[in-house]
Amino acid sequence: MAEEILVSLSVVIGISALLAILARIIKHPPIIAYIITGILAGPLFLNLLSSSSDTIQIFSRIGVAFLLFIVGLNLDIRVLKEVGKVSLFAGISEIVVTASIAFLIAYIIGFGGVTSLYIATALAFSSTVVVVKILSDKKEIDTLHGRIALGILIVEDFVAALALMIIPLVSSNFTIYSILLKLGTAILLIALVFSFSIFFFNRFMNYLARSQEALFLFGVSWALVLATIFNLLGFSLEIGALIAGMSLASSKYTLELGGKIKPLRDFFVVLFFVFFGSQLATAVNFHMIKLALLFSLFIFMGKPIIIMSLLKIFGYKKRTNFLAGSAIAQISEFSLIISLLAFHLGHMNQEIISLIVLIALITIGLSSYSIHYSGTIFKKLSGILQVFEGNKYCESKCKEEDYEVILFGYHRLGYKILKSLQKMKKKFVVVDYNPKVILALAEKGINAIYGDAADESFLSEIKLESAKLVISTIPEENPNLAILEKMKKANSKAVFIATAEHSADALNLYLSGADFVIVPQHLGGDYMSDIIPEFTFDRKKYKSLGEKHFKEISEGKKNSNYSTN
Q1: Cβ–Cβ under 8 Å, residues 364 and 296
Q2: What b/e string do you get for 333-349 counting C-beta neighbours within 10 Å, with b at 16 or more?
Q3: φ, ψ of residue 326 in degrees (nearest 5)
Q4: I want to staple 335 with a disulfide (CB 3.0 to 4.6 A). Which of 4, 47, 112, 122 is the partner?
Q5: Does the pLDDT of residue 560 top 50, yes or no?
Q6: Nearest Cα to 521, choosing from 492, 501, 507?
Q7: What gap in Å lies between CA 363 and CA 277, rounded to an integer?
């Protein structure tokens, strides 16, 4: 049995790797490759997982636990305060509206009342795993739309966890008391976890940090232990892992902890998508495809419209509304869990489970593309999305001001440049797409604007034509090209300094009109080529320079908690 499981895992991982490489070549989201692997390895085709399905499922849930743990590590309480109300309102409203419409659709086309209720419940939730994975890959998890989407997903996960608790109770002799007891237990457990973390973990982690291995093992064990405890008490594993991460979010070692667990998370999350694809267990007929397409169209189009309409009430800009709405245009891993629970309780047959799995595969596949290319899609749809434009939330509080220097991006490079600008005593403003950055800079009395450099409407609001120097430390090519194009339209005479990770991007930016392009590895090489001939074999000079560099890195690391990477 062990050998069969090992062979199955090896083959599945091999297929995943090949398809992921192919997806990268043709520029498709890797999630698609993993889901296709699951379909191929499932019972409809190669049936490779018959002996290892339980193992794959366990591994996939470990991946989900690590994913939510890392999400919890990065949940800044100040940002949660900013988006908490809108996330709570939008999350609950979206569940109610989506479930109501899905129930009506299912009931009208001929499903029974109980089956329609389960289908509606399954379709009401969106996938935290899919959204967090893609937004993390795009480095947008800390943006405003990323935070709002994440907040909505957290609300949905809590509601889904409650649904998983209540469904078995409803099927047996339940009382309101038993439900309240469950909720009370959850609240008490969360309070105990945070109390324990506040009074014990700060000193304990200072000790653990002396050993990188000990810190890594502590993070893994804390995530899995709390996830398991919550799971055993009837709550979801996902909620336990999220709470584990949030309990450590105030620690100064969250970046190291998250960075060390990410490779482990990525491996197990791959198996999650493989497992999801393998759940397509029965033959798909034309009638099932028609039903799946109908529900998928509603999820893919309806959910974003519902979210955009709700966010408009709070006055957010149409771009923020669109990016947050399009992020949750799929159904959840909870949908599968709820369906399997209904099947075991005798409320649903295998065909309905396959229908829900097919809807999940379609919506996850489509939303993977829509999230991956959301910026491009927004540009094409910007005109017709005007109806979702809010008017209360001003993303550029300083737009009426004239600044000599505009600095786009406050990550590690931007932090260094900011120090120079402060010494020069020039009038400057920092533009960043991370709400945490804006909050941190505002606390220090530094002029800062929340905004997206790739958004043409935002760039129109800030006075690029008045600036004498525009600096972008954003390494992606598209935002830099957008700034350049806007500067040309505004007839700006400012110097433009861009940043590029690769030489090819730097050449393209020069050809497009950039005055200077920062390529970090080239500048680093030039710096060392000047240092080595001067210092040669003088260890004291290297040591002195190293100590200065160490202080700079340590200071920068404190600020990296509010950085976009």
Answers
A1: no
A2: bbbbbbbebbeeeebbe
A3: -70, -20
A4: 122
A5: no
A6: 501
A7: 12
List C-alpha distances in Å: 237 to 110, 244, 472.
Answer: 35, 11, 41
Residue 124 near residue 100 (C-beta atoms within 8 A): no
In the three-class reduction of DSSP (H, G, I as helix; E, B as strand; rest coil), residue 273 is classed as: helix
Average pLDDT, integer, range 362-383: 89
E strands present in 74-179 = none
**C-alpha span between 101 and 290 (Å, rounded):** 18
Is it the case that residue 392 has pLDDT exceeding 60? no
For 263, other C-beta atoms within 10 Å of its C-beta total 9
DSSP assignment of 293-338: HHHHHIIIIIHHHHHHHHHHHTT--HHHHHHHHHHT-S--HHHHHH
Of 355, 447, 436, the closest CA to residue 396 belongs to 447
d(CA 372, CA 340): 30
φ, ψ for residue 410, nearest 5 deg: -120, 60
Helix axes 144-171, 318-327, angle to 10 degrees: 40
Token pair belonging to 388 = 């979702």
pLDDT in tens, 60-115: 888 888 888 887 887 666 556 667 888 999 999 999 999 999 999 999 999 999 99
Length of the chain as a residue count = 565
Instruction: Return the pLDDT at 172.
Output: 59
Centroid of chain to Cα 133: 5
Domains of the chain: 58-388 (1.20.1530.20), 405-560 (3.40.50.720)
